[in-house]
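#struct-pred
JK: can someone run the complex with MRU? inputs below
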Amino acid sequence: MRDRSGMALRVEADRLYLLDQSRLPQEQRWLAIDDVDALVEAIHALRTRGAPMIAIAAALLVAVRAERGDDRDALAEAVARLRRARPTAVNLMHAMDALADALAAPDWRAAVIASAEALHDGDRALCDALAAHGAALIGAGERILTHCNTGGLATAGIGTALGVIRRAHEQDKGVSVWVDETRPLLQGARLTAWELGELGVPYLLITDSMAAGLMAAGRVDRVIVGADRIAANGDVANKIGTYGLAVLARHHGVPFAVAAPHTTLDPACATGTAIPIEQRAAAEVRGVTGAAGELCWAPADAPVDNPAFDVTPAALVDHWVLDTGVFDAAAVAAGALTHGGAGLP
Ligand code: MRU
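RT: done, structure tokens with the ligand placed:
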């Protein structure tokens, strides 16, 4: 395999390395990931995260195992286990399906490696394409609110929603960003704030509960978020809290956009109700764990509900920004998302 390097994922001398995102921003620690157990643990613990990123990390690990001589059965088992590592982001399922197809080829070892490399390289191109489409939506001086982390840490390229913002910044549009902290795991505060700082994009960090007041005060011009899975009718599963932002945005007349590569589309899900939502550990809501250790502020046995994602109905989305273009409600109603938007305006 050729070496590859990105913000949070590297392949060097047939070894996969991931930046441990659970330690950011305090510490930049790279993990060598040699087997499925290590990657499943890293995905569960959100050491690597983001819909495209977990798919690419899984694909590259299978390719590394193929390169190291694992037999077809072992690779098939790896693909099956990794496919189940997290339930909501469909990119992971699509990637593992592609590798399962490659394993059925006569020259399966080469096919697996080529498929994983194509997924990695393809994601970079998809990010660039959707960022170009999305940046065209952005006006001068816009104050854009975003949620969770959708940048270079979450993809192999420049990101999705954050990639759009980055492109608009590079085009000197003078944008600034409201960064939702994104409870409970603080991907906004820990990761998006860090990425925007590195890029030199002006931002202000806010708690999730501040978005309503900011919109009421007319201080938000647009909301752009990413997605973990988009149903055929345009319903969007994304980080918990996204739905609330969409309701707020509609109430205040603020345009709401979802940015994702077509690998996040799931035409097999007719609507968002069919999207499985991951439930996570109670400890994440009772307190926080990070590089600085663990802090619990709730009663240690407080009962908790902790869905990692929610579903935003298509009716609340103004723009679906894909690598194939920007789609509005009329295009989505006409079926744009059932075939990746290809061929539609
Ligand atoms: O739980 P996470 O951090 O993996 O959730 C990530 C998100 O919800 C992102 O918005 C989504 O995966 C898109 S990343 C380009």
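RT: quick notes.
The longest strand covers residues 15-19.
The chain has a mean pLDDT of 96.
JK: thanks, will look after standup
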